[in-house]
Specification:
The chain has 220 residues and is of the alpha/beta class. It has helices at 11-23, 34-42, 60-69, 85-93, 106-119, 153-164, 172-179, 190-202; strands spanning 3-7, 27-31, 48-52, 76-81, 98-102, 127-130, 133-136, 141-144, 147-149, 169-170, 207-210, 214-217. Strands 2-1-3-4-5 form a 5-stranded parallel beta sheet, sandwiched between helices. Strands 6-7-8-9 form a 4-stranded antiparallel beta sheet, with helices on one face. Bound molecules: calcium ion. The site of calcium ion has 5 residues, from loops. Calcium ion is lined by residues 9-10, 52, 54-55.
Length: 220
């Protein structure tokens, strides 16, 4: 759920941003003055605020300052005039996370919004580890007891499912749907074949057979 609060009094811009966000699967709400922007931003109902600086009533700088004073931690992207370096610097010093100089293309704003929504969350795991077995999800490398092991793409994908669910019994159907897709024949023995490949490469005891149920990654 990505609920975006747009504080912009210029109807043309507000509706352009609102439509674009909706078309990209986000949930936008528009407010047109500073006081509503502050109230909504503090409600806890939004994941990100796109804040125009020139707002009636209370300007964007004041909204931002009060928001941060009230410990509102929502990420804020300010909309500034293209050539106003002063606005940009003041905005960032006032607690904005990013800025978007006007006029802008929609995809530029969307890229910044997506970046903020991502970085707001916990950093993504890039190495999965279980005992002396590890998978590096960026380099697609596996290593056992410190030495690198070559895995095919399928073997890597299967190992990844096991490492994301250590100690859990995973049925053949679960493994099939994760690694081979839902339309694969459930009668196929491809899972058993690949588990054998993995055992050969990672160690026989690494993946245990749970009779009648499936397989499990050994946790000790
Ligand atoms: Ca304005």
């Amino acid at each position: 759920m990505n609920r975006i609060l747009i504080a912009e009094d210029e109807q043309r811009i507000a509706s352009f941003v609102e439509k674009g966000l909706r078309a990209n699967g986000l949930t936008p709400t528009v407010v047109t003055d500073g006081a509503s922007a502050l109230g909504h931003a503090l409600s806890g109902d939004f994941d990100l605020l796109v804040l125009d600086i020139g707002l009636p009533g209370m300007d964007g700088f004041t909204v931002l300052r009060r928001l941060r004073q009230s410990r509102g931690a929502i990420p804020v992207i300010i909309l500034t005039a293209r050539d106003s370096l002063t606005d940009t610097v003041a905005g960032l010093e006032g607690g904005a996370d990013d800025y978007m100089p006007k006029p802008f293309r929609f995809d530029e704003l969307l890229a910044r919004i997506r970046l903020r929504l991502r970085s707001d969350r916990a950093p993504e795991v890039t190495v999965l580890q279980q005992g002396d077995l590890s998978l590096d999800l960026r380099t697609r490398r596996a290593s056992v007891e410190g030495r690198t092991v070559d895995l095919s793409a399928r073997e890597f994908a299967l190992a990844e499912v096991f490492l994301r669910n250590p100690g859990q019994v995973l049925s053949r159907e679960q493994l099939l749907s994760h690694v081979w897709g839902y339309d694969f024949d459930p009668e196929s023995n491809v899972v058993d074949v690949y588990v054998r490949y993995l055992r050969k490469k990672l160690g026989q005891e690494r993946i245990q057979t749970v009779r009648g149920m499936g397989y499990r990654l050994a946790t000790d």
